[in-house]
Amino acid sequence: MKILVVEDEKLLADSLKSLLEHKGFEVEVCYDGESGAEYAELGVYDLLILDVMMPKLNGYQVAREVRAKRCGTPILMLTAKSGLEDRIEGLNAGADYYLTKPFNTRELLACINALLRRQGNQVDEVSFGNTSLDLSSSTLICGERSVRLSAREFDVMRFLLQSGEHNLSKETILARVWGYDSEATENHVEVYVGFLRKKLKRIGSNIRIEAVRRLGYHLEVQND
To answer: CB–CB of 140/147 below 8 Å?
Structure first.
């Protein structure tokens, strides 16, 4: 499960990251609303945790932008603004739950687990064409045939499946899968796309990873 924390208080953001990673989640952090909206709109996260009072864009604005892009990722607002009108504004902006600071760690984890459960099968599987990716076992499945993916193959394939027909640049894939501080190059993306193409072919998938010059990659369903 991948969670995005958007919180401008660096100490709190990093503490949340450590707590959630200790519980087995994969966590990324943004420290301002504008960056948070850009990350969230990629659609690769299972949950967004948003502060309200942030620079550039506040949490309400981030939630509205995310929902305007038809991103259905659950949103948990975590904020010191505890008034009734604040909670109503947060929910109207698109938040699924509104938890006020200071919060109890057990309550936070209970909220996270409840929001993730609401997603049902989408939490466990991502599909496109005649192929699905089992998120719990990192397995690509097409009919009765399947193949296990390495950790890096899994991350790239999941990102592609969630983006579907929308182009993903090599730079975006590199940043989201390898991280902004990685020394990996665009060639790494090309290599793993090559690995995935072979595995898709091996299981008889009708998914094709299309490369578009200067735009990156997207998925297409090949109709024979």
So the answer is: yes
Pairwise CA distance, residues 116 & 146, whole Å: 26
Digit-coded pLDDT (tens) for 83-93: 778 878 888 88
DSSP 31-93: SSHHHHHHHHTT---SEEEE-SS-SSS-HHHHHHHHHHTT----EEEEES--SHHHHHHHHHH
Do 125 and 134 contact (CB within 8 A), yes or no? Answer: yes
Q: Read off the DSSP letter of residue 168.
A: B
Task: Decide: 189 and 170 in contact? Cβ < 8 Å.
Answer: yes
**pLDDT tens sequence across 14-34:** 999 999 988 888 899 999 999
Q: Return the half-sphere exposure (C-beta side, CA atoms, 13 A cut-off) of residue 2.
A: 17
- In DSSP terms, which residues pair with 27 in a beta bridge? 3
Distance CA 173, CA 44 (A): 11
Q: Tokens 């008889």 sit at which residue? A: 204
Say which residues have a Cβ less than 8 Å from residue 130's Cβ, sequence separation at least 6: 142, 143, 205, 206, 207, 221
pTM to 2 decimals? Answer: 0.57
Band the pLDDT of 184: cuts 50, 70, 90: confident
For residue 21, give both structure tokens: 């990673």
State whether residue 74 is helix, strand or coil.
coil
CB 206 within 8 A of CB 152: no
Q: How many CB atoms lie within 10 A of CB 30?
A: 23
**Which two tokens mark 2?**
């991948």
Burial call 178-188: b when 16+ CB within 10 Å, e when fewer: beeeeeeeeeb
Residue appearing with tokens 């659609």: 43
